[in-house]
Amino acid sequence: MAALAGPICLRLRRDPGFVTGRDGRLSTSIVLALAWTVILVWLLLAILGYGLTAGGGIAYFRGADGPLSTLTTVYLPLLGGPYVALIAAKAVVGLRVEHGSMAKPAAKPTASGRRPLRELIANDSGRTDLVDLQYVVLSAVTMLYVVLFYLADVGGGLPRLPAEMWALTGAPAGAYLVNKMAVRANPVITNVALEDGRLTVEGGGFTPVPTGPPTLLTVDDTPLPTGTDPLTGALTATLPAPGTPPFTVVVTARGLRSDPYRYEPAPKPPVPVPAQQPPTA
């Protein structure tokens, strides 16, 4: 298992682009589909190796109760649910972004270039998403069942799990897909910057309805006159005095409210104290 998963994890740690969406965030559906693929490939290779060595050769694989007898009834459905969710979620999100019914702003870059694992269970604003959380947790528990049951009886081949076990990945995958279809197009704040009293709010979904009220930007529930950067689409405003952070920023557009964004300035690096020269004699 380590020989197969280790190089993949190291590769993704250096360059996570393979498991991120077009917005640059870790994709829950891609990560879980990849994880199930790695586990199933490992099981098949391990069973092949056991059969050709300690299992007695080709005869080990024959018979109605052979080591691969549950492949089509249990394990392919276990793998199919995450892949259906992956393909369908890509289609749904792409169509919604194209028609303007969902905001998918690019993720804020990290200093290390790596993406935090928390993105697997969080929405685009960084808040924990219950649907994503249950999808990840139930999938992880099912994977643990499969791996431990196999290690408990290596010679038995694919573990004889109940056929209904596919529901532990299929049902959460379905809920994950429905959530992508039903989620509202709320504005998304990805970053807030403050420089010389000028507030810049980056994200997506800030465009108001032409015939509706303008986009509203509030800082600690205080509305501010707002402008829009024509190049980036970011919102800009002048922070009234005293305007000292930390404070909470909220954007309301098309009658939909963003998740609150808590702005706290980055701590300033300590000023090095110059070393004192020893007195000369």
* Strand tally: 9
The SS-based structural class is: alpha+beta
Return residue spans where pLDDT drops below 50 for at least 5 consecutive residues: none
Radius of gyration: 26 Å
Distance between the termini: 69 Å
Number of helices: 5
Helical proportion? Answer: 25-40%
Strand and helix order: HHHHHEEEEEEEEE
What is the approximate shape? flat
Strand content: 5-15%
What would you note in describing this structure?
There is one protein chain. The protein has 281 residues and is an alpha+beta fold. It has two domains: 2-182, no CATH class; 188-263, Immunoglobulin-like, CATH 2.60.40. Helices cover 37% and strands 14% of the residues. The strands form two sheets. Strands 3, 4, 7, 8 and 9 form a five-stranded antiparallel beta sheet that branches. It has a four-stranded antiparallel beta sheet with strand order 1-2-6-5, with no helix packed on it. The chain is flat. The mean pLDDT is 85.
